[in-house]
């Protein structure tokens, strides 16, 4: 028989100990504190089998959130599948910016382009109930995940399928538009570590800036006067994104915000 403690010890030869705990807690349907307080408990054979399978998947490189089917974002559990990007803590920078920008106790309409798991749109809808939130994605499979997350977390978000603004009616207008688009450069070495995630959610297959340029070009037709457009982007892309905004006279108050690690992460501008 194998105890919780032994199972964690055995796995720690092959995978990170913290990740082993996440996987075992997932298989037992308990939280991580339980593992500590019950470390002498013996594991039922079926749980042990499932846990061994999870460890094997992790050793092969599959990210823990895909194995467990869930990832926490802004304190809430989001369902994730390989059809959606795994929510990153960095993206909370974009959420915090929008919450602050819309904290005037008035209603605002908001659009999230390329919503994936729905983590940005759903978090904003829940954190500020005065926002009326819409979200798009090119991927019908991603939208299925996003809709399920909205249902489970009781968030009111309207979802639309299509390529950026093509998903919407031409007369749709918003006060705030946000996006965490695929911005990684196709040659970025970091991409090699992300091979389980949907490639189309990570890179544009070019310099990482093409989707941001497309959105900046088309956003004025869907933003209300003085509306905000905010992007998440790579740590080294702030100047390039600022330049894209500055190519026309349409944008003002162009600025960049750093994430908790001190990297440039979000660039925002206001429609003049
Ligand atoms: N920030 C993510 C990463 O570098 C990528 C997110 C994205 O491309 N939108 O892992």
Automatic annotation (TrEMBL):
The lineage of its organism: Bacteria, Pseudomonadati, Pseudomonadota, Betaproteobacteria, Burkholderiales. Its EC number is 2.1.1.297. Residues 99-189 form the Methyltransferase small domain. It is an enzyme of class 2 (transferase). Residues 4-69 form the Release factor glutamine methyltransferase N-terminal domain. Methylates the class 1 translation termination release factors RF1/PrfA and RF2/PrfB on the glutamine residue of the universally conserved GGQ motif. Belongs to the protein N5-glutamine methyltransferase family. PrmC subfamily. Substrate binds at residues 180-183. InterPro entries: DNA_methylase_N6_adenine_CS, HemK-like, N5-glutamine_MTase, PrmC_N, RF_methyltr_PrmC, SAM-dependent_MTases_sf, Small_mtfrase_dom. S-adenosyl-L-methionine binds at residues 114-118, 137, 164, 180. It catalyses: L-glutaminyl-[peptide chain release factor] + S-adenosyl-L-methionine = N(5)-methyl-L-glutaminyl-[peptide chain release factor] + S-adenosyl-L-homocysteine + H(+). Keywords: Methyltransferase, S-adenosyl-L-methionine, Transferase. GO terms for molecular function: peptide chain release factor N(5)-glutamine methyltransferase activity. One of its GO terms (biological process) is methylation. Pfam families: MTS, PrmC_N. It comes from the Bacteria. This is Release factor glutamine methyltransferase. HAMAP family: RF_methyltr_PrmC (MF_02126).
